[in-house]
Amino acid sequence: GAFNENNETKNARLVKFTDDEYLDMVQEYTFRYFWDFAHPSSGMSRERNTSGNLVTTGGSGMGIMGLLTGIERGYITRKQALERLHKIVTFLASCDRFKGVFPHWLNGDSGKVIPFSTRDDGGDLVETSFLMQGLLAARGYFDSEIEDERQLRTKITALWEAVDWQWHRQQNQNVLYWHWSPVHQFAMNFQLRGWNEALITYILAIAAPVNPIPANLYHVGWAGSNYKSGLTSFGYRLDIGGFRGGPLFFAHYSFLGFD
């Protein structure tokens, strides 16, 4: 037996898992973070387990995709996920945005921006992209003519079409910029050039129905410099990316939503 926080004895037993059983357990327990530990007022995902009211926009996009997985795996019902998504999109429609772009962090109660750093107190185009890929996945998933599902699609479309991707070219340059703030403008001056986790930003910005960017910015901006690699790691040739391809999330985040 083992003791819990109330000094009560709890019995546990060891179970030998197959690989599939182990992966199933990990997936279900990971899902609990996005479902059980979501912010109670907004339904958004907290940055980490010590974040209190601080919620993350990009992480919430991943959490939204987790809800869809939860339906498919039988962890929650379609109706439960739909209710949670209505809570999330209602919150997003009322919280701080900058040219339709969401900040990295928000207060889950008030919807006010929480600065990620001193000058990062406005819109974060990359985190917004991670959020949008989750919202668009949900819009595609809830595809019935039930009124609640139609309303969800309408709300998501309004959030999607409000993003001003073009603005983040900073006066029509051939590259996107990560941050813009009404206080600090483009002072952070961080260009989005690959290879990194921001691939989905260019895909969404080019595909956007409102305020899109020209398609050639993919080549001249995103893949225009420092993109190709040719390095090898553990005997594998890396066509793109830096040393060992860069951090693992470079290869994960964009491909949650882009096949």
Low-confidence parts = none
Structural class: alpha+beta
Question: Which bin fits the share of residues in helices?
Answer: 25-40%
User: What's the tally of helices?
Assistant: 7
Query: How much is the radius of gyration in Å?
Result: 20 Å
Distance between the termini: 47 Å
Estimate what percentage of residues fall within beta strands.
5-15%
Order of helices and strands: EEHEHHEEEHHEHHEE
What secondary-structure arrangement, pairings included, does this model have?
Blueprint: E1 2-3, E2 9-10, H1 19-36, E3 54-56, H2 57-73, H3 78-94, E4 105-107, E5 113-114, E6 123-124, H4 125-141, H5 147-161, E7 179-180, H6 199-207, H7 217-222, E8 228-233, E9 236-240
Antiparallel strand pairs: 1-2, 3-4, 4-5, 6-7, 8-9
Helix pairs in contact: 1-2, 2-4, 3-5, 4-5
Explain what this protein looks like in three dimensions.
The model has no long low-confidence stretch (mean pLDDT about 95). With about 260 residues, this protein is an alpha+beta fold. The protein has a three-stranded antiparallel β-sheet. Strands 1-2 form a two-stranded antiparallel sheet. It has a two-stranded antiparallel sheet with strand order 6-7. The radius of gyration is 20 Å and the shape is globular. The longest helix has 18 residues, at about 20-35. It has helices at about 20-35, 55-75, 80-95, 125-140, 145-160, 200-205, 215-220, and strands at about 1-5, 10, 55, 105, 115, 125, 180, 230-235, 235-240.
